Amino acid sequence: MQKKHYERTKREIDRFVSYVCTGRIDALSSTLRGARQELTPTFKQIAEEFIAGDFHPNTRCDIRWVAYKYFAWLEDQGFKDMSGVGAIHIQKFLLFCSEHYAPGTIHNVRLYLKKLYAFLHMTGQVKDDYSALFSFSVQREKRVFPVLPKSDIAKLLDAIDRSTVKGKRDYAIMMLGTVLGLRACGVIAMKLEDIDWLRGEIRIVQSKTSYPVHLPLTQDVGEALKDYILNCNYSYLFVR
After folding, report:
1. How confident is the model at residue 6, as a pLDDT?
2. Hey, which of 65, 107, 159, 204 has its CA 20 to 30 A from 192?
3. Based on the structure, what is the number of domains in the chain?
4. Burial of 78 by CB count in 10 Å (0-12 exposed, 13-18 middle, 19+ buried)?
5. What is the pLDDT of residue 24?
6. Cβ-count burial 93-114 (b if 16+ within 10 Å, e if not)
7. Are residues 160 and 117 in the same domain?
């Protein structure tokens, strides 16, 4: 578990334990991210009107954080409203964020600040939406998960009861994934006609890219598929 997730989970557990011990429902309340900063009435009104827009509940807290962070930064620069705020201040704020936050956070700041200025421009509070300033892309760090050792994969395969139809199905699915690297969506969409037994190929169309892919029908995968196919009669091999 990453440190930030551990700390967040610990805080929630502490709040729940406090509720159990005291019986106070307010012990369960959690301050929304980004709402800890006090803003001037003008900036607070703008922020709340923006946040009240048609946003998905899962992103509303992140949007609040960016809006409040930006307006708090503007107040630190001496601004009480949007008068006099221009491109140079947006650039300085983005530079400030780049020095203090991770790439994933910078990505959100760019995205939601662009939405904020689109809102400000649409409501006539600024003359320009400065969309060109937010046209840059941010390379977010992507965690690469380690692969399972071959010994663990062998244990998973050996644990399947291949004397039943369900076990034959599960074994065939596991072989397609572990040997050929076929994704779950590819397995689900797989039909009998996708297997070219004479050429020794599996031909599928990737659901994400719509590109055709030809995979080698190795002997071990072929045997697993044959053992299962002889015991089922579905149009789609692995779903009814």
Report:
1. 66
2. 159
3. 2
4. exposed
5. 61
6. bbeebeeeeeeebbebbbbbbb
7. no
Residue 29 lies in a domain: no
Of 74-78, 168-172, 210-214, 217-221, the one with minimum mean pLDDT is 210-214
- Across the range 144-154, mean pLDDT stands at 87
Q: What is the pTM of this model?
A: 0.50
Give residue 173's identity as a one-letter amino acid code. I
- Residues 97 and 44 reside in one and the same domain: yes
φ/ψ (deg, to 5) at 173: -60, -45
CA 83 from chain centre, in angstroms, equals 36
Angle at 72 between CA 70 and CA 78, to 5 degrees: 110
To 10 degrees, the CA torsion angle through 38, 43, 48, 49?
170
Identity at 134, one-letter amino acid code: F
DSSP 236: B
Q: Which of 230, 228, 226, 239 is nearest to 191 (CA)?
A: 239
Q: Which domain holds residue 163?
A: 150-229
Could you tell me if 193 and 218 lie in one domain?
Answer: yes
At residue 122, what is the residue type?
Answer: M
Strands (E), 66-221: 195-196, 201-205, 212-216
Q: In the predicted model, what is the mean pLDDT of residues 93-99? A: 92
The answer to whether residue 5 scores a pLDDT higher than 70 is: no
| Residue 221: C-alpha distances to residues 23, 161, 195, 234 (Å) | 58, 17, 11, 19
Residue-wise pLDDT tens digits, 177-234: 999 999 888 898 899 899 999 999 999 988 777 888 999 999 999 999 999 998 877 7
How many other C-beta atoms are found inside a 10 Å radius of the C-beta of residue 37? Answer: 15
